[in-house]
Target: Chloride channel protein
Amino acid sequence: MRAFQCSPEKAVEYLAMNEGLSVIHAEEMLTASTTQPWKPWRCLRWMVKECVQRTQAAVSSVLGLHWLCYVALGVVTALVSFAMNLTVAKLLRAHNWLYSQLEGHAVLQFLCWTLYPASLCALSTSFSHSICPHSAGSGVPEVRCMLAGVELPDYLSISHLFAKLVGLTCALAAGSTVFLGKVGPFVHLSTMLGAYLHRLCASAAGKEEQKPKQEMLVVSAAVGVASCFGAPISGVLFSVEVMGTHYAVRDYYPSLLAAACGALTFRLLSVLSREQETVQALFKTTYSTSLPFQPVEILAFAALGLLCGALSCVYLFCHRWILQFVRTNRILAKIMATEKALYSGGVVFLLACATFPLSAGHFMAAKLSMSQLLSSLLEETQGYVLSQNASVPQGAEDLLWQAWSPSGTTIFVTLGVFLFMKLWMLVLACTLPIPAGYFMPVFIYGAAVGRLLGEGLTHVSANGTSSQGTAPAINPGGYALAGAAAFSGAVTHSLSPALLALELTGQHTHAVPVLLATLLANALARSHHRPSFYDAIAIVKKLPHPLSLVRTCPKLLSVRLGQVIQAPTTVVEKQSGVTHIQQLLNSSPESVFPVVDCQESRVLLGSVSRLQLEAFLHAHRDGGLAKKLVDHWSFQPVKIQLSAEATFKQAYSVLTAVREQCLFVTERGRLVGVITWSEIKRIMEEFTKATTLHHQTAERMKSNHIPTS
Amino acid sequence: MRAFQCSPEKAVEYLAMNEGLSVIHAEEMLTASTTQPWKPWRCLRWMVKECVQRTQAAVSSVLGLHWLCYVALGVVTALVSFAMNLTVAKLLRAHNWLYSQLEGHAVLQFLCWTLYPASLCALSTSFSHSICPHSAGSGVPEVRCMLAGVELPDYLSISHLFAKLVGLTCALAAGSTVFLGKVGPFVHLSTMLGAYLHRLCASAAGKEEQKPKQEMLVVSAAVGVASCFGAPISGVLFSVEVMGTHYAVRDYYPSLLAAACGALTFRLLSVLSREQETVQALFKTTYSTSLPFQPVEILAFAALGLLCGALSCVYLFCHRWILQFVRTNRILAKIMATEKALYSGGVVFLLACATFPLSAGHFMAAKLSMSQLLSSLLEETQGYVLSQNASVPQGAEDLLWQAWSPSGTTIFVTLGVFLFMKLWMLVLACTLPIPAGYFMPVFIYGAAVGRLLGEGLTHVSANGTSSQGTAPAINPGGYALAGAAAFSGAVTHSLSPALLALELTGQHTHAVPVLLATLLANALARSHHRPSFYDAIAIVKKLPHPLSLVRTCPKLLSVRLGQVIQAPTTVVEKQSGVTHIQQLLNSSPESVFPVVDCQESRVLLGSVSRLQLEAFLHAHRDGGLAKKLVDHWSFQPVKIQLSAEATFKQAYSVLTAVREQCLFVTERGRLVGVITWSEIKRIMEEFTKATTLHHQTAERMKSNHIPTS
Model:
């Protein structure tokens, strides 16, 4: 306001002298104040801007701005993760309190048990769908696509971030009834945060960069896992695995740095909130370290790995079937199209009925929350022995075990019921159109499988050696750990769960058996080119992810470029004038244009960027209509050319390796096509569509054939 | 022998009927027996071959042969590692026994202490040098080169394997006097084993493949670390880091599988040899898990990381200086050229004099072996407190501590002497021309740095809180762990030592501080583009490793191909006849030849492989001298072309990404060069030579200038 009360020159002098602004800045400020008089607080804004720029210059002289960006990403993601955990815990406690207050009124308890999660999930669906229709599901398949190089700008927007955040919190607050997790959406959330921070950094550095760099996405994927579980190294391994074909080693250090910052912040926050005394593992276990397992037990762990691998095949088959069923069944497809919230509410109500503690829920530890389930399964205490001697003094840990062996039932019955019920419930929950993760449920399911085997072995070894007196102590918790890693690894076709299991529990004594079980389970699950959990979703959602599509159409990678490429419509001729270039820029959104000698022969001469063309137009805007591009500009030479004989896989590898935005396809010097990421996406979509049509036709013919025969 | 006693037809029938051989095999056998009558045991050999082929067919129907190859690599490497450990332990025990028998005779003890390691190292030098001159040193810089795609066949030969094996065993048997490790050469050994197994598999599958695949080398690198320490996951991380630019994600599963097999075998062998009761970490620690460290101690860990980073810069500077000094000093260069064994013996004698337990060795725990040093430094017991109360009951663990606080000296003095002495000894040991690793010594040195800080903090906190009575127990072992990871990570510019430290000790409670210290130390060590330990060796040895060379000549990556490429001498003309092709094949060893329309215009038409040309010659060997290649053969089309404007970095990335053997460089359709791995190597060598010459000239001018001024 002050700037208006004196002459401009004086104002510049005053500002430059008294407020420490540079003369140029002060002048800029005054120019802006006269040209944009409707913006308030000019002086303050300019001072803040000046301060920020100075701090930034000082900081970036010591440390690159992008490093700060990585650290900030880790810290912010961890803060979001912790805040979400707190909110979810409060909502869960409210539900538990209400349920316990209604003790004695079975009907009211039933309503409380079923309607609370149902309404939360319905809310989650309607909220996230109304803000961003794409926000349902895990998000990992989409992140895999983006990491493979495909641009999906809808999946990195702020509104999506908001929708996912609120939707996920509601879904998690529905508790173990719905049995959904956090890690998948969190990887996606972290990617969105990363993209936003990258834009912020770019604008702070004065650059106009809209597209997030590949590095940032890789780092974000690692941070997502790390700040969800406080497990930095498995976060980095996850980002290596999720990359698809090539992992750029230069992303390794930033990933680990950001992941370590995220994990440290996440764990320090629980120290600050007095949950823990120091920075420790999330689900810390304290198995006996003197003899964690007999060497011969390694065979049992290997068998557990194979069992988990076989079970994962069953689960994945059911999952693929139900995804297809929901899409093809007419009634369900109609409901899903119009009444998503109703569907969510209905399904969750059904799930809640099945887990009601006064019915079947009594035999499946339904009252425990997700984290309590995992902790109880990982405990060292032998449930079988506990249920035999009911008179042992019951500590706080054994309270968890009371849930697993309620009045008179052994742990084998409860674990069996749990495994049977949760299998179909898990498959059903995957169809819910809410933002939620599917990793943690699978992890817990695997832990239950391992626990069952472990308890069985304990039982057998106790019976077998009861005559000799000294039974070798088998730790069923170790089997639960290995089972969790093996099953979740087999379902997602990845090995990072093995390290995640170790980092989550801080239990390094079982490193070798856990790794062995995960490797064997993976070997079984990957055989015969079966699609993984994420592949199945990518195929159903028709996401352009090359490695997933290979599962359905293995021919894609070896297809010749000549068969699929389209002739480029937007080329710059050597002799192009101002008018033509103006038209070209208006009609096409591309950022790089090929330069050919003439439209007929199309001999490729080089390439020219959009910015260069705009600069050319700017230089000749006043009247130079006769100017030719060739007289005033030198093109970039073309560095890498593909021929029409190159395969799709080669084009994809080169594009990923050199991280270029476009490659030219030539045949004896003539331009026949341009490979960009959007072109790659188009090719994949068309190819999949063609293959799917082909498949559907074949299937229809088959199904028509069967009744007539 | 039997086959000669009857007619051939009968023999075939007999063999086919009675010995289960197929008729074709039996006939082949007889043909061979008549054409190669000098080979004995024909029948037996053929039966064995038949058996092997049947087993192979049965196995490969279930499992790919290459998977068996990976598993075998892990198991064999672990067996070699364990056998070497056993031999070294026996040799060390012999030395200790001799030394203890000479108690009371100081001169004899001195001779025993010094001559034993000196003669072992002299033996190691002369043996390994006489079998394979390249076998000295760690081998990791060479492995990095091979992983980057450069072919170094000398470094994968069987004689090299043998030289390295024996040389390394002798070097390790010299004990902590020489202070050298095992992991570097073991990575190299594993690579050689992998290459050999790959050749074996290829010949078993009936393929003639001489060059080991890139996959096998990556897997071998992981297996080397895993079977040396029993640490599979850090082995895989090591192989990711050592890859340079791109890590192919498809190598991840085989690497982890082979590494897990290696680690499991290595740890099971120690169970079988009654060293351990079950599969556990190599240097297992059992820190208190209830409160491993106070949250505020994280700051101390961060400071330790920075300290280790700074120290690593000092160490690396000394290392570079001495490498340069040994090469440039006239007397030393002469000795190194002719009398390598004398040099080794002399240096080791000097080192042994310095560590003689009755002199300075008394104050630096010289009697402990490498593994005892590491175990003692990682112990939870507080050395400061121990040395205060000498009356505490002394268990087996405290015996190690007696070495660190001998009569009247505190642990601070011994650690200080150790750190000061070992710094120059370590630098000096790096010049020894023997096959030995430099990772473990650096790891132990870092542990000593951490221990010193930890003991200091214990001392301060004990003094500060002695008035209040209850001192918060600081665990100096945790600092040793973090220091080891941070210092070794900073020296090698890698982060896998952080995970290695955790896997070696099985101590997951300190994951976050160890990671933090390693990250900070790395940040400091990598700043200002300082070369790492391996970079320095690669630069001095003039190895064609792109990422190392970037440290000396950063221009290499951005140099245009047009500036460095040579016109190809061996091209096939479209009109080439039989005679010309015969000449070409005789004169050139290349496996792929470019096809041009004629020698003058050199328009690239496609490529043709050596095998195709040989087949062409074979088809027209009798008289068809007038046949032209173009009439009878279709060429492979060229899929990827580079232009002369592409940079060296782009050529390198494309070659790595598509794993092709050659790329063609064209300019408007004309062939101007061929990029193969040997061409890449030539360019790098020439460029380095030019830069070195330039440097040397500049330095000579500078040194000439100084005296005159």
